[in-house]
């Protein structure tokens, strides 16, 4: 059998959800270019596209917005569980625990029909956003922020995170980032969710496994590492010096390179770079954009590597006032819509994942008598 380490290049599933067309630099989501969606639509529109299978009309968009806000309230027992966890515990570990516990409060948890999975998916999307928005508050011993029924879904999430009223420009920047993270074909976390779903396990089990996968620094977490690197550098000049020193020490520079985008810039990185520039034009500190551009030029010159989404998402989140430990949980909250779509698709035309191995161990050994 042909062996591909890491399953690189192996077709693991047929899907009508998304495809990375590297040759044309297009991320196809149910037939649309993800960048077009980010520039013309909202995250709620894209969530509907992923979960329902089509872009919503005005009536469906309004209905989904109302449902998401109404379903955003989290059972008090979830806060009790999170308060019992050590504050030093990684935010993704606390999120994984909360996502698993949410299953106990969903009356349709064991109904795997497409209709039930979509209803559960919308409930999970709403509640996970509120959990993520409050991970930092709970860890600091503060009461959880409650969603405001007078705000939209995305505005609610950002306002709960930063603890203040947010401007339309800030909401739009955050909305674009959520769209950018919403779906990306078959990364490790999506594959994990589909493998779990293929056993006919429930949606929450698949989402819990995806959280665990996304925690790994080779998948999620790069956005946090990028921001720590920028803070350490401090200035554009310091950014170049820091990267050169890290390269000389053969350290990995997070936020660059991608398993699929080998020799091209991640289209989502360009989108978030534009988004950061709009925030700077609206009055945000411009040094983070300047530092990003310096780092981008150095890595292209020295290693021939291009930024991925996490590289420019990090400073976008920083200027919005989002705590760094929440960057990867936000990635998961945004990706929940895509994961739900994959679980619905897997359950609807299921085949259990059961690959084989290339055995490299000994043969013919006999036990001693």
TrEMBL record:
Pfam families with a match to the protein in the record: Citrate_synt
GO annotation, cellular component aspect: cytosol
CDD domains per record: citrate_synt_like_1 (cd06118)
InterPro entries: Citrate_synth-like_lrg_a-sub, Citrate_synth-like_sm_a-sub, Citrate_synthase, Citrate_synthase_AS, Citrate_synthase_bac-typ, Citrate_synthase_sf
Entry-linked PROSITE patterns: CITRATE_SYNTHASE
GO terms of biological process kind: carbohydrate metabolic process; tricarboxylic acid cycle
Molecular-function GO term, any one: citrate synthase activity
Keyword entries, A-Z: Transferase
Active site location: 258, 310
Pathway where it operates: Carbohydrate metabolism; tricarboxylic acid cycle
Catalyzed reactions: oxaloacetate + acetyl-CoA + H2O = citrate + CoA + H(+)
Family note: Belongs to the citrate synthase family.
Protein name: Citrate synthase
Organism: Hydrogenibacillus schlegelii
Organism placement in taxonomy: Bacteria, Bacillati, Bacillota, Bacilli, Bacillales
């Amino acid at each position: 059998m042909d062996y591909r380490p890491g399953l690189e290049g192996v077709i693991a599933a047929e899907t009508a959800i998304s495809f990375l067309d590297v040759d044309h630099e297009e991320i196809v989501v149910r037939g649309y270019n993800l960048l077009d969606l980010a520039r013309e639509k909202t995250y709620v529109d894209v969530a509907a596209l992923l979960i329902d299978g089509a872009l919503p009309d005005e009536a469906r968009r309004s209905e989904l917005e109302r449902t998401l806000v109404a379903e955003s309230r989290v059972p008090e027992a979830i806060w009790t569980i999170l308060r019992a966890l050590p504050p030093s515990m990684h935010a993704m570990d606390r999120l994984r625990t909360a996502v698993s516990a949410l299953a106990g409060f969903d009356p349709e948890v064991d109904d795997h029909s497409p209709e039930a999975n979509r209803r559960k998916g919308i409930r999970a999307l709403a509640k996970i956003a509120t959990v993520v928005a409050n991970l930092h508050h709970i860890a600091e011993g503060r009461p959880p922020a409650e969603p405001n029924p007078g705000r939209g879904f995305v505005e609610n999430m950002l306002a709960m995170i930063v603890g203040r009223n947010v401007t339309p420009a800030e909401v739009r920047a955050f909305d674009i980032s959520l769209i950018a993270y919403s779906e990306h074909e078959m990364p490790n976390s999506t594959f994990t969710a589909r493998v779990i779903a293929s056993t006919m396990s429930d949606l929450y089990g698949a989402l819990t496994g995806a959280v665990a996968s996304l925690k790994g620094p080779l998948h999620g977490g790069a956005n946090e590492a990028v921001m720590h690197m920028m803070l350490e550098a401090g200035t554009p000049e310091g950014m170049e010096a820091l990267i050169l020193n890290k390269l000389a020490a053969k350290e990995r520079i997070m936020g660059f390179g991608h398993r699929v985008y080998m020799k091209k810039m991640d289209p989502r990185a360009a989108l978030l770079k534009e988004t950061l520039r709009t925030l700077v034009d609206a009055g945000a500190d411009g040094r983070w954009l300047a530092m990003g551009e310096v780092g981008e030029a150095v890595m292209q010159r020295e290693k021939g590597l291009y930024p991925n989404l996490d590289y420019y998402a990090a400073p976008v989140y920083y200027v919005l006032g989002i705590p760094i430990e929440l960057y990867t949980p936000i990635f998961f909250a945004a990706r929940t819509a895509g994961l739900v779509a994959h679980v619905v698709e897997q359950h609807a035309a299921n085949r259990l994942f059961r690959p084989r191995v290339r055995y490299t161990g000994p043969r013919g050994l006999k036990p001693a008598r």
